[in-house]
Amino acid sequence: MPFDKTDSDRMMLRREKEEEYHTMKKQWKSFSDMQIKRFQSFRESLQLINKDVYRTDREVDKYKGANTHSLIQLEDILTTYVMYNLNLGYVQGMSDMLAPILYVVDNEVDAFWCFAGLMERMMQYFELTQAHTKARIKKLRTLVMIVCPSLYDFLVHHNADNLYFCFRWLLVSFKREFNYDGVMKIWEVVWTNRLSADYCLFIALAILDKEIDKICHPDNDFSDILKHINGLAYNMDVDEVLELAECYVQQLSRYKKLPDEIKDIINDPLPGRQVMPWQRNHASRGVLLSEVSEDAN
């Protein structure tokens, strides 16, 4: 809701949004079997939604069981979104983004509009070409090269420097890597845009740096690296990861030799914030700290 609106304005806007949602929902609910049969893109979206919904977060109490009210709401919201955005339709991964929203909001209409707003922010991530996500992977690769050169060299040597094992992290904003409490904390930090226009890249960098010793074990090959990365899901401390990510943004914001593609995603550092001693020691694995010090002189 807009902050500059009065209570009566907000109530009126809320009613309008409720009516708009139910109108779109009635549209697809009224389709006959013959219409759906002849509407290929919609039919394919329905099939994907049905498949994804019934395997999304089944370990969460709200979504356990078969044909529960919450699963039906998930399916209805995603199908209505197809009507709302016919150009994009439904793409796998969207159910991952919706489930925590519905869990928190617990209202179908409100969850839909929250989800629609989130998709405005993330729409590029779900384009079929995946060009935007591939560009983000390239920026992450640059960050690893700057901050963790030993890790970068190891990945290059093992033909893993494309970092495609991080693709899922960036596509659904670490939704499948942490429990709901952790995911919500990460999303709240990321959505502020306070430190970076793409803070997920620094969270990914922090995870890789924290795992550098295990990833770079001399006996590891590509399959071992992939196995370790996949095994991190639900086994990471979200607070440590976020603190280290902030540490790197703060340091890189003072580094004058950054490529333009990295400068563009770093905002001004928070006033009065300092790198904590334990963060400084952890980050010293890379060449970053010495170079930042040189630039500051």
C-alpha Rg, in Å?
22 Å
List the secondary-structure elements in sequence, H or E. HHHHHHHHHHHHHHHHH
- The portion of residues forming beta strands comes to under 5%
Helix fraction bin: 55-70%
Mean pLDDT: 88
Count the beta strands: 0
Give the N-to-C terminal Cα separation: 47 Å
Largest sheet: none
| Unreliably modeled segments | 271-290, 292-297
Tally of contiguous helical segments: 17
Defining traits:
disordered C terminus; 17 helices; single chain; 297 residues; mainly alpha
Report on this model:
There is one protein chain. It is built from 17 helices and no strands. By secondary structure, the chain is an all-alpha fold. Helix 1 (7-29) crosses helix 4 and helix 7 packs across helix 8 (149-157). The longest helix has 23 residues, at 7-29. The chain is globular, with a radius of gyration of 22 Å. The termini are far apart. Mean pLDDT is 88; it is low at 271-290 and 292-297.
Layout: helices, strands, pairs:
Blueprint: H1 7-29, H2 33-38, H3 40-53, H4 69-84, H5 94-105, H6 108-122, H7 131-147, H8 149-157, H9 167-171, H10 180-192, H11 199-210, H12 212-215, H13 222-230, H14 238-252, H15 260-263, H16 277-283, H17 288-296
Helix pairs in contact: 1-4, 1-6, 3-4, 4-5, 4-6, 5-6, 7-8, 7-11, 11-14, 14-16
Summarize the structure.
The protein is mostly helical.
